[in-house]
Structure formats: C-alpha cells, structure tokens
Amino acid sequence: MNVASTVVLRRNVWFVVALTLLFSGCSSRTDTAGSAEDSGKPRVALIMKSLANEFFSTMAKGAEAHQAEHAEEYELVVNGIKDERDVSRQVALVEEMVASGVDAIVIAPADSRVLVPTLRRAMEAGVTVINIDNRLDAEVLQEEGITIPFVGPDNRAGAKKVGEYLAANRKGDQVAILEGIQTSFNAQQRRLGFEEAMKEAGMQIVSSQSADWEMSRANTVASSILSEHPEVSAILAANDSMALGAIAAVKSAGRSGEVQIVGFDNISAIQQAIREGKVLATADQHGDQLAVFGIEAALKHLSQEESATSDAIEDVETPVDLITADTLAPPTP
C-alpha cells in the first residue's frame, strides 16, 4: 500500500473515531490546523508537555506559524498536557492520535521510558514518530526493538555553558541544583552539565533536588534549601520555570542580590529577570523552532516513503546558546 492510500485509510479511521468521540461526550485539548476533510495531505500531531509552561506554548506557536506558511504541504494537530507529571495523559494522547489516523507524531515526552511502548505501537500502526526536546531512553528503545530519531539540543552541553558562566562570575563556592523530573533524560543531562561545570570550577554542590520542572514546587524546594544551607550562594535551575520559583524563594529569604540564579530555556519572564539582575544566565534551545525541526524531519520521512526510498531518519542536533545580560536581545518595543 502506498502512502497516499495509507493516508486515505487513516482519514476513514479518523472519521469513525471522531464520530465515536462526539457521541460519547469525550474531549481532549486539541487544536487542528487545516481541514478535517480528506485533503490528501499528511497530518502531523505535535504532542508536548505542559502548555502552562511558556516554553511549550512558544513551541506550539512556532509550529502553528510553520504550518500556516506551509499549509499546502501538511495539516497539524497540536496537543499538550496540563501537568508536566501527567504521563498517563500523554500516553492517551498518543493513542488518540494514532486512532485518529495521523501520519506522523512529533513528541516531547514527559517521561523518557514510559512512552516508549506506546510509541512502538504507533510505529507498528504505520505512524512516523519523531522525538524532540527530551530524548527517549536508549535502553528501553532497545528492549522494545525500535529506533526513534531524536531532534533536539545537547542538554548537557547547554547546562555546562550556563554553569561555567556562573562559575566565572560567582559570589561564593557553595551551590544548589533544582532538577527536573528525574526520569526525564533532559533533566538528567542538565544536572550532569551543571555538575561537570561545578566540579571543574572547584565549587561544592550542597543540595540537588527535583522540583518537577514547576515554579511553585521550585519555590518550596528552594526555600527549604536556603533554610537548611544558608551558605548557598547560587541556585542552578534546570528550567526557567523553576528559576522563577527560586527567585521568589530568594526574595522571601531576604537574600535578593546575594544568591545568584541561572536557568534553562530563555522564556520571556527570565529575559526580563536577567535585565533586572535577578537571574545571571539561561540557555536558549530555540523553543519556537524545536517542534519545527521535528516536523520537517517527519515530513522528510513521509516524502521518502512516498517515493519508495528507505533512508533511515538520523538524529539531528539543534542549537543551544548561552544567554546573559550581554548577549540578550533588546526587548521588543
């Protein structure tokens, strides 16, 4: 069966599922670009983590802008979960997208291990899968007997850049790390990058704890760390949402200006915090383009399928840049 026939078949499956969901009262947070009718164009599903996180809302906007510019080439379905830890909902989204007949899934997995079996089943159903942002676990991929290309930055290298900048501008030698969800590969890599930079600089990590990528959780964890370790002179947060929580904790502890903070993602709120001197640095992994890179890889693979070529999709390393007060772009008027 060629790709065109496969696409038509999936449209029919999608139509049946859509009717089922309509009459059963089911719903999901899904935005669709393009017509729901059979257009003959491939349908790509973007499945992200929490849209409450500015990084992922920026990612969604970038993907939607790309689709608008290439409306004749593909249709886009955008999905996100409400909570970074709601892995079961993300699993359900993958299953829903497969049932709806999408041709490709581009996913930023909430967990590097749990999603793999579900993605294997998606691939067995003929869906192209591209992994972005958070790399899937290599051991679990091997156990499942599949290969899924990763399109994204070197998180460890990006975190190390941020840590090295902190070390070069430090006010003290004792620091704490706010980790992401510990089963996520990008959280592990960012922690390792921070640790490597601190070790090379001879700085001591007195506490390293997960704050689950979330601002409120980071506020609580950072407050506890500052209470238990008043000698801490810096907090390295594995994403900018947690850096915002650290800012609030430092302020509540009466230590604004004393405790340096760094983050990762370069969201707009952190850009303003850098300008105000509340945050020293962050890393920009170009969230507005990250999903686009994944979508382009998926479309390339679908095109190869249609032309009967069989080249494997390779990993694509995307840029990650250090952002400081000196390198930050001026605010938009």
TrEMBL record:
Coiled coil: none
Transmembrane segments: none
Entries under CDD domains matching the protein: PBP1_ABC_sugar_binding-like
SUPFAM superfamilies named in the record: Periplasmic binding protein-like I
One Pfam family matching this protein: Peripla_BP_4
Record-annotated Periplasmic binding protein domain positions: 44-305
InterPro entries xref list: Bact_Solute-Bind_Prot2, Peripla_BP_I, SBP_2_dom
Domain of life: Bacteria
Cell location: Cell envelope
Main location: other
Family classification: Belongs to the bacterial solute-binding protein 2 family.
Protein name listed in UniProt: Sugar ABC transporter substrate-binding protein
Source organism of this protein record: Rhodopirellula halodulae
